[in-house]
Amino acid sequence: MNRLTGLLCLTFAVLIFAAAGPAWSMHEQGKFHKKKNSKIEIVYPPGAPGIAAHFKSRLGINGKSRDAGSLHQGIDIKGPNGQAILAAADGMVLEAVVDECWGPTISIDHGNGPDGGKIIALYGHVGEMLVEAGHEVKRGQLIAKLGDNQNRYKCMAGVRHLHFQLGREYQTDKSDRWGNEYFLEDGRRGLNPHLYWVDGVRKVTCFSPAKIYPADYLAYPLPCDRQ
Fold first, then answer.
1. What is the largest CA-CA distance in the chain?
2. Domain count, the chain
3. Domain harbouring 179, CATH code
4. What are the CA-CA distances from residue 70 to residues 52, 90, 207 (Å)?
5. Is 10 strand, coil or helix?
6. Co-location of 129 and 145 in the same domain
7. 160: which residues sit within 8 A by CB, 6+ positions away?
8. 3-state helix vs strand vs coil in the chain, percent to 5
9. Distance (Å, rounded) from C-alpha 108 to C-alpha 82?
10. What is the pLDDT of residues 84-112, one digit of tens each?
11. How far apart are the C-alpha atoms of 104 and 101, rounded to whole Å?
12. Global pTM?
């Protein structure tokens, strides 16, 4: 009876801790990862370019506050002119267009993620686009390069960078659409990229041609050596 009582008390304590304590997230390939204060602490491998503007941040790439109620729906990564941009996974290019605010932007259907939901990635604010709609791409393939166009397009805020955003639903009705909703129906409800890296939740995974990857997870869209 004492042992049973002890087990019941322990179970109750765990449930109380789970309800009141830090949030947890689960990577389908690994274990549970604690998220302090519901924010994910990011782990970078050596040489990985850092993220300058984070997912759900209220600060823009230029360090200024975003409009009230406007949270960042992707991640922004700075780079030099000519910085290589890589496909995060195998997929099909849905469009490669020059938007009047976003500038050159590529949308790729990367198939289904580990949760069974569609993963569509936006590679926004690039310079030179090296793929076209209908092209099939492979993970790690060079699809674009950053350019010297950061002052030409308003949405780039005067800072050269890649905007990498994930969504579920491709936007087919382009009329009266603007910004990320021009490309994604759920553009204002972006998916957190840090839940989909190959190496696990919050663990940025840089592409290596020598590595075998599961099809439903993503690699970083910039190489770790900034080639």
1. 74
2. 2
3. 2.70.70.10
4. 17, 31, 31
5. helix
6. yes
7. 78, 79, 80, 81, 83, 125, 146, 147, 148, 149, 150
8. 15, 30, 55
9. 21
10. 999 999 999 999 999 998 999 999 999 99
11. 9
12. 0.80
Residue of 164, 74, 149 lying closest to 66 (CA atoms)? 74
**Residue 54 carries which side chain, given as an amino acid letter?**
H
Domain span at residue 24 reads: 1-39
Whole-angstrom distance, CA of residue 224 vs CA of residue 98: 27
Whole-angstrom distance, CA of residue 133 vs CA of residue 190: 22
Order of strands across the sheet that contains 118-124:
75-78, 161-167, 118-124, 103-112, 91-99, 136-137
- Give residue for tokens 């780039």: 156
Shared-domain flag, residues 26 and 107: no
* Residue 128 and residue 52 share a domain: yes
Q: Are residues 84 and 112 in the same domain?
A: yes
Q: What is the pLDDT of residue 155?
A: 86
- pLDDT per position as a tens digit, 33-46: 333 334 558 999 99
One domain, residues 19 and 108: no
| Same domain membership, residue 101 and residue 29 | no
**Single-letter amino acid code for the residue at 49:** P
Q: How far is CA 105 from the centre of its chain?
A: 15
Beta strand 161-167 with 75-78 is antiparallel
